[in-house]
Amino acid sequence: MQLVRRFRLPALLCALAVLCCALVSRPYTTMGVSDDGPYLLVAQTLARTGHIFYNGWETPMLGFQLFLGAAFVKLFGYSLTAARMSTLLIAVLMAFLLQRTLVRAGIGERSATFGTLALVLSPLYLQLSVTYMTDIDCLFAIVLCLYGCLRALEASTDRDAILWVCFAVATNAVCGTARQLAWLGLLVMVPSALWLLRARRRVLLAGGAATFLGVLFIVGCSSWFRLQPYTEPEHLVPASFPVGHSVGLLLHLLLDVPFLLLPVFVLFLPEVREARRPGALAAVLIGYLLVGIHFFHPHPLFVLEPTMNTASWVTAYGFYNPDAVSTPSVFLGTRLRVLLTVASGGGLVGLAISTLRSRALGSKPSEAQPPTGSPEAQPPARDIESRQLLVLVAPFVTAYLLLVLPRAASTFGLFDRYLLPLLVVALVVVLRHYQEHVRPRLPLAAWVLIPVLAAYGMATTHNTFSLCRALVRLAAQMRSAGIPDTAVDQGWDFDFYTELQHSNHINDPRIVVPAHAYVPVAPPAAEPCWAKEGFYYYVPHLHPVYGVSFDPNACYGPAPFAPVHFSRWPYRTPGTLYVVRYVPPQNP
């Protein structure tokens, strides 16, 4: 037990689990994955020239992330995988930090390890950890800030409390340059911690001064970013903001939380038996299922999907949808999707029952005290009360939701990766509630779901990159036949990377500096398959004659090129990509 406490073995286990599962998934490719293609080019340019040049697809600042990615490029070579491994490093450190943060939040070692693995081995976290997207770096900045605030609340001396507040401010300010939304830690979470410490005058004054300096840093960085060419300013309130639609879409997105933290929410399934009004609870569960099936659902034939849509990172198809002309084959069978959705909804109902009962009865007496010397029996120096936790995280969650809500009105809508910071807060609140009001220790059966979750996460991550490698092979085949990349539509993430080989920026209408950088592009009426994509005006150098499809008969039928296969874990039968015509055969 002394070795466990000294070397933080549970936290190291969580970090190594992320590293091993990510590497087993074979996360390499030479194309962009989702948004990260343009970001990778900025990092490579920084490594080559020492200067930051944005390219028209940057709403996040990318600052901290760019310098780390450029360092990896310098060390390991000018490859996209080298830069992506910088994100994996942050993801591994994040797993270690998250476990320690949960412990500092008053959660036992084993429960904290369980909750950490439930998040970091999820398909959402694993896929993002091997891309150059900003989500993991943003989460790292927020969790660092949360950890610093918790340590400040636990500190027994004013000096220690001041140092931890300064740590929270400094780390959040610097790491938040990767994605401005992370600065909510400094702007909201740190002031919440100072409010809880207001009785300690020295801490309040010193922490307030540090926060003020952090705000000045944020203002300076934001002013610099607005002046950079080919960046996209983010507006707090868009010009067109349908409140009802946006709120509905946000609520539907939040229904993914029980699924994305399924091992944790399944713990509350036994609580359903304690319901005093089973009819009302059945109605709630049915309502959850109906909303999950019908609300903004793009594929009504695929019922009971536990995720929002095929544009999310975790889907029934096993990988991120590349916006190909046709729909990929389903990764999860209908029965499994029904089971996952019912388990998610049932766990949510069980949590609601447990919460209502705990309010009526108070804390449930512990069934058994952990043995002396065990990890569970080692509380922090000063216990964090549940009320303090709520004061610390509730304002942050409110501010985060208010800033994410306008994204629902944008062209792209909301993605489940936006939930990552909220998943951390959910872990803190839900595990603390389970420990205090249900059982002091987790049942051994709960751990069975962790390797199942890891296998699911590795499969979806592998399938994402396997598909991308197939697209790269298909592009090489087309080039060898004399067909340039600009004549083939291979999904927007590939096409954006192609566009930046022929232009210094994406043709985005949101670009303000320099003026008139956006050149209007007329819809290609003669190419209905290309116009259907909706991304044609971003890539004016592309004039596709061919496209990539999961269906060989899509658009104007098959083109005379060999299909390309890609592996799909856990199935032996590979997936297949076909080249189809975007124009009639008589007008190639």
Describe how the helices and strands are arranged.
Layout: H1 2-7, H2 9-24, H3 36-49, H4 63-76, H5 80-104, H6 109-120, H7 123-129, H8 135-154, H9 158-175, H10 184-196, H11 201-226, H12 243-254, H13 257-260, H14 262-265, H15 278-294, H16 334-361, H17 386-404, H18 420-437, H19 449-480, E1 488-489, H20 492-499, H21 528-533, E2 546-549, E3 564-568, E4 571-581
Parallel strand pairs: 1-2
Antiparallel strand pairs: 2-4, 3-4
Helix pairs in contact: 2-5, 2-6, 3-4, 4-5, 5-6, 5-7, 5-8, 6-18, 7-19, 8-9, 8-10, 9-10, 9-11, 10-11, 10-17, 15-16, 17-18
- Tell me the β content: under 5%
The radius of gyration over CA amounts to 25 Å
The count of helical stretches stands at 21
Largest beta sheet: strand ordering: 1-2-4-3
Low-confidence stretches: 296-302, 364-381
Q: N-to-C SSE series?
A: HHHHHHHHHHHHHHHHHHHEHHEEE
Overall morphology: globular
- What's the count of strands? 4
Give the structural class.
mainly alpha
The pLDDT mean sits at 85
The largest pleated sheet is described as: 4 strands, mixed
Give the terminus-to-terminus CA distance: 71 Å
Summarize the amount of helix as a percent range. 40-55%
How is this structure best summarized?
This protein is mainly alpha-helical and 588 residues long. The protein has helices spanning 2-7, 9-24, 36-49, 63-76, 80-104, 109-120, 123-129, 135-154, 158-175, 184-196, 201-226, 243-254, 257-260, 262-265, 278-294, 334-361, 386-404, 420-437, 449-480, 492-499, 528-533; strands spanning 488-489, 546-549, 564-568, 571-581.
